Amino acid sequence: MKKFLLIFLGGLGLAAFETHGATVIADVFARQPTSLNGKWHVIVDPYDTGFFDYRHQPYDAAANITGGFSLDAHAKDKTDFVEYNFDTSPTLNVPGDWNSQDPKLFYYEGSVWYRRKFDVTKAVSTDRLFIYFGAVNYEADVYLNGQKLGKHIGGFTPFAFEVTKLVKAKNNSLVVRVNNNRHADAVPTINTDWWNYGGITRDVLLVETPATFISNFRVRLKPGTTNQIVANVQLDGGKAGQAVEISLPQFGLTADAQTDKNGFAKLELTAPNLPLWSPENPVLEDVVVDSGEDELKDRIGFRTIATQGTNILLNGKPVFLRGISIHEENPLRGARAWSEDDAKQLLGWAKELNCNFVRLAHYPHNEHMARLADEMGIMVWEEIPVYWTIDWTNTDTLANAKAQLNDLIARDQNRASVVVWSVANETPISDARTKFLKTLVDEARSLDGSRLVSAAMEVHADPKDSTHKIVGDPFGEFTDLLSFNEYVGWYDGTPEKIDKLHWTLKYAKPVFISEFGADAQQGFHADAHTRFSEEYQADVYRRTLPMLEKIPGFSGCTPWILCDFRSPRRLLPVVQDGWNIKGLIGHDGKKKAAFAVLKNFYDKLEEPTTPAANKPQN
Ligand code: GCB
């Protein structure tokens, strides 16, 4: 399998990255791909029998020897011994997690083999073909017609394999072994507060490209300007000196350049009177990237995002992030979200709350989310699943986290809505942890110096006074935001404690509260002292929001969380039953009382006009 080397000569110098056996194909939906979604035959294989062929020869992944179920074999006559059969096996929907599709698979963690047959008619005989997966959780071993294409690790980022030479006109057999076992050295690791949905959870596409194609491109404002556009274009399969053109047809603007020996070209154009993207005016421009043989069209917004002292500046003006955290789950189905309709549902609810910002926790969500956020005018925090405790000293674990960050940035770098890359959530302080995260921050900045980089950190209490909260994680030195999760009133005391809090912040940066909240069972009403009641949760919100307003530099928050979501850690019968119920919306889709409290706060909040204008100082 060909490896791609994507090289971007960004404004900050040389940033090169190599993907792990597969690559992101940028702007994949613009290529009018053939969908391979639908019903796939599946074999549930808890003992990984399919990794051995039916005569029990061991499968050798390192030597790339294929065997077992990947051969999609059939008994040739009545004496032949084949102990599996995709044709007579049940089916599951792709995209889709397996847990919500079959009660027997609800808690299942292990391997499932998927098979789909397809025919191919190429539009142009010299074109290339790729099989593209939006995401597979967590490991995918992919085979076409019995040949291994490669392996992908990481449950939330896209990958593609070239199949030009392997594909036949008729009856191709695409087999994927999906395994969602949790591992101590993986990203995320064994313990998470969300459901470990297994399966081919996003679109599978057959993508046709010209022999030399635009594998990736990045178009954005030149740092420090609002009327200069700079574009990096990467061709795959070409020679040096290939002409590349970028245009914004509605402005009559065009620039061209030639590729270097790596197939890379950098272009610049001046665009006076370019309207800037913002939540109030989420204007997207048609952008066309043309390499002669290949052409891609996208709709891209232009804006700047920066910090200055304790302010976040969008297009040079202070902005308050009226946010909410979201998991990639449709609560009405109790299933992994994946479609444009799911994205509309989730972001529609965020809009109802009057949000201008969402935190897509705790891993990369599907591409529709950021694309729709671009159109709806919602700023986005995107995150990789470096969550709680990770194997901080393991170099493979770091490489895995870096690869997920690379793939996320490669996919969403043209989305104006995305303003923050988050490299972690609630990671306990240690030197090894700080070193690990610092490497990720450096990586994010070298790939994309045009966005803020952060992480959801922890808060610590003064040992002598539990109402004195200290935000002093040494990692805070390296992030653009001072972002942290706090649960005073839920895990830490009762709501009255919120009123007594006082804070020491060790860094003069914009303060962003990435989580606070409380459990509430939708429809359970009691007094505000009764845990799990809507009134208790609403009281936590009522007390927390004015308390946060007193923190100097308070620049936004994403309370936990928009909707209830499934979590195997939440075991209280009747009340939780396997759901984390901190949602402002229950898993019946009904709003809880706290929804209105947050909405009311956001409705009344005045946009900061001068630095820190709406923030009372202590
Ligand atoms: C957190 C975690 C989040 C949990 C949440 C909770 O701090 O970041 O993943 O779901 O608390 O509900 O406890």
Could you give me the name of the CATH homologous superfamily of the largest domain?
Answer: Glycosidases
Which hetero ligands occur in this complex? (2S,3S,4S,5R)-3,4,5-trihydroxy-6-oxo-oxane-2-carboxylic acid
* CATH architecture grouping of the largest domain: Alpha-Beta Barrel
Q: Unreliable runs, pLDDT <50, ≥5 residues?
A: 1-21, 612-618
Descriptors:
disordered N terminus, disordered C terminus, about 625 residues, Immunoglobulin-like, 3 domains, about 15% helix, Jelly Rolls, alpha+beta, TIM Barrel, binds (2S,3S,4S,5R)-3,4,5-trihydroxy-6-oxo-oxane-2-carboxylic acid, 6 helices, 6-stranded antiparallel β-sheet
Q: Can you tell me about this structure?
A:
- This protein is α+β, with helices and mostly antiparallel strands and 618 residues long.
- It has 3 domains: 15-209, Sandwich (Jelly Rolls); 213-293, Sandwich (Immunoglobulin-like), CATH 2.60.40; 307-608, TIM Barrel (Alpha-Beta Barrel).
- It is 14% helix and 32% strand.
- Strands 31-30-29-28-25-37-36-34 form an 8-stranded parallel β-sheet.
- Helix 5 (534-549) packs parallel to helix 6 (593-604).
- The longest helix has 18 residues, at 395-412.
- Bound molecules: (2S,3S,4S,5R)-3,4,5-trihydroxy-6-oxo-oxane-2-carboxylic acid (GCB).
- (2S,3S,4S,5R)-3,4,5-trihydroxy-6-oxo-oxane-2-carboxylic acid binds next to loops.
- The site of (2S,3S,4S,5R)-3,4,5-trihydroxy-6-oxo-oxane-2-carboxylic acid has 9 residues, from loops.
